Amino acid sequence: MTEAPLLAYYGDDFTGSTDVMEALSVNGVPTVLFLRRPTAAELARFPEARAVGIAGISRAKSPAWMDEHLPGIFAGLRALGAPLVHYKICSTFDSAPEIGSIGRAIDIGARVLGTRQTPVVVGAPVLRRYQAFGNLFATVGDETYRIDRHPTMSCHPVTPMTEGDLRRHLARQTDKPVALMDVLALWSEDYPARHRALLDGDAGVLLYDVLDDVTQRRTGELLWRDVTDGADSRFCVGSSGVEYALIAHWRASGAVPLPAAPRASAATASDRVMVVSGSCSPVTAGQIRWALENGFEGYTLDPAALLAPQTGEAALERAIGHCSAALEQGRSVVAFSSLGAPDKRTRALFNDDPEGFSHRLGRAQGRLLTETLRRTGVRRAVVAGGDTSGHAMNEMGAYALTTLTPIAPGSPLCTVHADDPDLDGLQIALKGGQVGQAPYFAHVRAGHA
Question: Are 233 and 113 a contacting pair, CB within 8 Å?
Answer without folding.
Answer: yes
